[in-house]
Amino acid sequence: MLLNSAQGQRDVGFFAERLAQASPQEIIEAAASAMPDRLAVVSSFGIESAVLLKFVADVKPSLPILFLDTLWLFKETLSYRDLLIARLGLTDVRTITPSPSALAVHDSKRDLCFRDRDACCGIRKIIPLGKELEPFDGWVSGRKRYHGGERAEIAIVETGGIRLKFNPLAHLTSAELNVIFETTGLPRHPLEALGYGSVGCIPCTSRPASSKSVRSGRWSGLAKTECGILAAPIFQIGTGLINPVFRDDRATKLGGYFEDSNENSTPRISHPDFAGHRRNGGNQHISRDSGQSGG
Q1: Which residues contact 264 (CB under 8 A, 6 or more apart)?
Q2: CA-based diameter of the chain, in Å?
Q3: What is the pLDDT of residues 140-160, one digit of tens each?
Q4: Burial of 193 (0-12, 13-18, 19+ CB in 10 A)
Q5: What per-residue string of b and e applies to 53-78 under the rule 16 or more CB within 10 Å gives b?
Q6: Degrees, nearest 5: CA angle 219-74-209
Q7: Rounded Cα distance, 6 and 242, in Å
């Protein structure tokens, strides 16, 4: 059952005490045990994502993993997703795409990311994820404190409005992540070798200008540092909860655009500078058994 504020705070206190010294695997195990069939993992299949996904696979490879394909992702990220699914034996990876009609009406020229980054994140990430999270009581993220900024003080467990949010890798350092990659033989994201420290959508990702922050290549030169999906509370249709990433009444306006989020997708419009990126039609489930996306 979805949480009210008081219940959420009580549950946070319970888990915080129980998991204070727990390993990442133990945190995932505890969350999955407490919320059978009501826990999801949210992953970008980015530079460091393999570590979290390895722990998930070791605990329960059938845990639902929600992957946001904004239709602006690097093709290398899509290939890396497929590689990790096969390598780790993940059986319920769900690829989530934006509402086709919302894109047609509000971003038909694929230039919203250059005009209003927050609105673009809202249409392509925040509201599609909020819709997909509706059946779940909790979710798992791969955030780490060493990333700095808004992540520097993240707790192992938080309230995300009406559901709990677990951060099993919060205390891990860059050196510890590298050890896990090396000792387990996990494959690296192809763009890491090209100098990328963090990878998201093409227009908002660049190689970091310095080594001061692993995320310095995201929204470089802008005040923006997060897309908003990890802020609390996340927007959920029908609840009245508004993600604070939105200014003014933008969240209210965006909410009306997503009533048809399950409709079939139209072909992706190719950006002339980034040919070869394909559209994933609708919300898709990918399993290692088929190697393909399905309905």
Answers
A1: 100, 281, 282
A2: 52
A3: 999 888 776 666 778 899 886
A4: exposed
A5: bbbbbebbbebbbbbbbbbbbbebbb
A6: 35
A7: 19
Euclidean distance between CA atoms 230 and 219, whole angstroms: 16
CATH superfamily of 5-275: HUPs (3.40.50.620)
Q: Do residues 293 and 285 touch, judged by C-beta distance below 8 A?
A: yes
Domain-wise residue ranges, the chain: 5-275
| The residue type at 152 | A
pLDDT in tens, 197-253: 888 888 888 677 665 666 444 445 444 444 445 554 444 433 333 343 333 343 333
Q: Between the CA of residue 204 and those of 4, 74, 215, what are the distances in Å?
A: 35, 11, 11
183 Rama class: left (phi>0) / alpha (psi -120 to 50) / beta: alpha
Q: Which residues contact 231 (CB under 8 A, 6 or more apart)?
A: 243, 244, 245
pTM: 0.74
Q: Which residue has the tokens 């963090």?
A: 198
Rounded Cα distance, 109 and 128, in Å: 20
CA–CA distance, 112 with 108 (Å, rounded to integer): 9
- Active-site residue flag, 204: no
For residues 121 and 129, is the Cβ–Cβ distance under 8 A? no
Task: Give the burial string for 248-268 (b: 16+ CB within 10 Å, else e).
Answer: eebbeebbebbeebeeebeeb
